[in-house]
Amino acid sequence: MRPEIAGRVARAWAAGRVSDEPPAGAAAQRGSVYVRDAERPQLVWVCLHDRPRNELLVVTAWEAGEDAAVPRRYTDAIRDRRRRAP
User: Fold this and answer.
1) Would you say 58 and 9 are in contact if contact means Cβ atoms under 8 Å apart?
2) What is the C-alpha separation between 9 and 15, in angstroms, rounded?
3) In which domain, by residue range, is 25 found?
4) Cα–Cα distance between 13 and 34 in angstroms, integer?
């Protein structure tokens, strides 16, 4: 993971910008936590929380809107791949 991403997620986590509820328009994934970026609030880091180790695994990023920093093709590809799974 890029150090910039790790730092941004860590700062948002420490600030309590965490939810078990996905942002509006995002698909819910069982076991995911959603960390809202402090610098760019419309950007949400989708993570898995390993509670025994107290570690976060950043799975992907999600952002709504026309000027999204995360290209829609990435989040759509993840969703499409899950639908094709047997």
Assistant:
1) yes
2) 10
3) 3-84
4) 10
- If pLDDT is split at 50, 70 and 90, which confidence band does 37 have? very high
47, 9 Cβ separation under 8 angstroms? yes
Element (H, E) at 83: helix 72-84
- Could you report the per-residue pLDDT of 42-86, keeping only the tens digit for each? 889 999 999 899 889 998 888 877 777 666 565 555 555 555 555
CA-based end-to-end distance of the chain: 29
Q: Are 47 and 58 in contact (CB under 8 A)?
A: yes
Domain count, the chain: 1
Do residues 6 and 23 lie in contact, with contact meaning Cβ atoms separated by under 8 Å?
A: no
* Pairing verdict, β 55-63 and 32-36: unpaired
CA distance 72 to 60: 12
In this prediction the pTM is: 0.73
